[in-house]
Design a protein that fits this description.
The protein is an alpha/beta fold. It contains eight helices and twelve strands. Helix 1 packs across helix 4 and helix 6 packs across helix 8. The longest helix is centred in the N-terminal third of the chain and has 23 residues. It is globular, with a radius of gyration of 18 Å.
Length: about 280
């Protein structure tokens, strides 16, 4: 697939995320009409790996509504969020203003982040859950991240495990509760086209642009992209917990997150790399 085709599919995703935003803003999933607790989207191991953030320049790539960006700012970071959706960035700015936190938001495709942010460089780049599947080219992404970091700067990726994405969100209409492999774990088969009329949150149907394209990325692909870009991987964690119950038989843990009673499989991973 050519870069022009990648760009066309990413524009379709951008339109879809613009259309998703009003649904997400009023969803119970995000709970933005309640007392906002952005730290509920973070596992304890994320804060341990990120370390001290006070006074640090932190960039949150593909930030959507900026909920995690707010949590980074609450920890004392000079936080910047970047997303390609104009609707998401507008909503994120409104949420930051309501929270009283000083956060900068920039609308740009992640591949254009260097140009969009000018000469600004960061101590930490954070990429949160459900972001990498919307990027067709991880080698190019890793080069951008490396360029955004100061020497010695850190990238922290917390992503849904590719095994989770391969299992699919729910059983088919004629299937039992067993977990079945439905999608690729590894890259190479091109994008998966999805109908995003309904998103991962509760709420009404998305109006307008409902075409969505996702790319599979195995952990090996992520690691190799970063090392090829001159970065050093310092830590890789695999976790059996998710911040919400993706399957009905998941049980709540002491952390407030959710896991499968069995089998014990990785659902989330955290990767720390240093430039």
């Amino acid at each position: 697939m050519t870069s022009a085709e990648h760009a066309r599919l990413m524009r379709a995703n951008q339109a879809n995320w613009d259309a998703r935003t009003p649904v997400h803003l009023t969803s119970r999933f995000y709970g933005l009409d309640e007392d906002l607790d952005p730290e509920r989207w973070f596992a304890a191991f994320e804060w341990a790996d990120l370390g001290e953030l006070s006074g640090r320049d932190v960039l949150h790539l593909q930030c959507h509504l900026g909920t995690e960006t707010l949590a980074l700012a609450r920890r004392g970071a000079r936080a910047v969020g970047l997303d390609f959706s104009a609707a998401s960035v507008a909503a994120a700015r409104d949420l930051a203003a309501k929270s009283g936190l000083d956060v900068t938001y920039v609308q740009a495709n992640v591949y254009d982040a260097l140009a969009a942010l000018g000469d600004r460089r960061f101590d930490v780049v954070y990429t949160g859950k459900g972001a990498l599947c919307y990027l067709p080219d991880l080698d190019r992404w890793a080069e951008v991240v490396s360029g955004l970091l100061r020497p010695g700067g850190r990238l922290y990726v917390v992503e849904f495990h590719p095994l989770l994405n391969a299992l699919g969100p729910s059983p088919g209409p004629d299937e039992g509760p067993e977990l079945l492999l439905r999608h690729d774990y590894l890259a190479g088969s091109g994008p998966v086209h999805r109908d995003a009329t309904y998103t991962y949150t509760d709420g009404p149907a998305v109006e307008g642009a409902t075409d969505c394209y996702e790319w599979a990325h195995g952990i090996g692909e992520v690691v190799n992209a970063l090392t090829d870009a001159g970065m050093s991987v310092r830590r890789l964690r695999e976790s059996e917990e998710l911040p919400w119950p993706r399957w009905p038989r998941m049980v709540r843990t002491d952390s407030g997150w959710w896991k499968l009673p069995e089998p014990r499989i990785p659902l989330l991973y955290g990767l720390l790399a240093v430039r």
